[in-house]
Design a protein that fits this description.
Layout lengths: L12 E5 L4 H12 L3 E6 L12 E4 L5 H8 L4 E4 L7 H6 L1 H21 L4 E5 L26 H21 L4 E6 L1 E3 L12 H10 L5 E4 L5 E2 L1 E3 H14 L6 E3 L5 E2 H12 L6 E4 L8 E2 L4 H7 L7 H14 L1 H8 L2
Parallel strand pairs: 1-2, 1-4, 2-3, 4-5, 5-6, 6-11, 7-10, 8-13, 9-14
Antiparallel strand pairs: 9-12
Helix pairs in contact: 1-7, 2-4, 4-5, 6-8, 6-10, 8-10, 10-11
Length: 331
């Protein structure tokens, strides 16, 4: 079990951006359990209330004044906020993905720098990588990102470059950069119109869609991470990853989308009789799997919950909280 330095959390004000999202809802209880005072930033009231002891600030991080006010007096920051979506959403909303994510990340990081926030975790993404058989951290800038993810990828790349620039200009080494793989779990966006692959398919299978239409031919390979494992990585980065350079958070194992679909149908139950693979639709890169050696060496990180168990837990949460899961995508 990882030893927790309570001095990093107890009676410290820790700012969590994107607090109503997938990562934030899993992280906040863990911070409270460590004795932190949590200040949560969200653009709208969460569909399910945050714990009463959380200080909630509603606003738009694209506004620098709001970002400055949120960061004032904070001891730590977990920057989780940003726009995300399926391949189709990223293409259809290309300008929004690029502009909004760049503004959100730059404003949050600059506000934290001006407020002298001592410890920061910036959540980037494995979409920053160009097409590679295996994503090793030092190869992120070896070529352009895949066209299907390029607008989110460039915004995240530039925020990583800003972190690097802080070291060059100000000598700062107080930021950990993590690149999670496709993460899923409770409090995700389950609206099929906006959700990523696992929650979207869970919602559609639970609705009895027949046939279940899936983009691509099922051979694309992805690395997946259950959100509680991802939060283990975020906390480890906060404690041990400052100034260490980007670190992947993933399982290091690739799963074909066909296996993911089969697993979802098994755990959702009462699913469709068959799957229609729509090869005319874009499916993104053929393979996206993270090299996790650096996470193991620097953070001592290794996920504990496999794909099947993670999907089982997520499907169970969705059945019990369907309205909240669908509401996130409509906000």
């Amino acid at each position: 079990m990882r030893r927790v330095d309570s001095d990093l959390y107890a009676d410290k004000t820790i700012l969590v951006t994107g607090a109503s999202g997938l990562y934030g809802r899993a992280l906040i209880p863990r911070l409270l359990a460590r004795g932190a005072r949590v200040r949560a930033v969200a653009s709208r009231n969460p569909a399910v209330r945050l714990p009463d002891e959380v200080e909630l600030r509603l606003g738009d991080l694209k506004d620098p004044a709001f970002a400055d006010a949120a960061a004032s007096g904070a001891d730590g920051l977990f920057h989780l906020a940003g726009k995300r979506g399926s391949v189709g959403i990223q293409i259809a909303q290309a300008a929004t993905m690029l502009a909004d994510n760049t503004l959100i990340c730059f404003n949050a990081l600059e506000a934290a720098r001006r407020a002298r926030v001592a410890r920061i975790v910036y959540v980037s993404t494995v979409s920053v990588y160009p097409p590679l058989d295996r994503y090793a951290e030092d190869l992120a800038w070896s070529a352009a990102p895949h066209p299907a993810n390029q607008y989110v990828a460039w915004s995240k790349r530039m925020a990583e470059k800003l972190v690097e620039a802080y070291g060059v200009q100000y000598g700062l080494a107080n930021i950990a950069v993590v690149r999670p793989v496709n993460t899923f779990g409770p409090f995700d966006d389950f609206d099929p119109a906006t959700a990523l692959v696992v929650p979207a398919l869970i919602a559609r299978a639970a609705a009895g869609e027949t046939p279940l239409r899936v983009w691509g031919d099922g051979t694309a390979v992805r690395d997946f991470l259950y959100v509680e494992d991802a939060v283990d990585g975020l906390l480890a980065a906060y404690e041990k990853g400052l100034g260490a350079g980007p670190v992947n958070l993933g399982s290091g194992r690739g799963y074909a989308i066909s296996e993911v679909v089969e697993t979802i149908l098994r755990h959702v139950g009462g699913g469709p009789a068959h799957v229609f693979w729509d090869a005319s639709k874009p499916a993104g890169e053929a393979r996206k799997v993270a090299d996790t050696a650096r996470a193991q060496a620097i953070l001592g990180f290794a996920p504990k919950i496999g794909l099947s168990e993670g999907i089982r837990r997520t499907a169970a949460w969705y059945r019990a909280n369907k309205a909240a899961g669908l509401e996130r995508g409509r906000r």
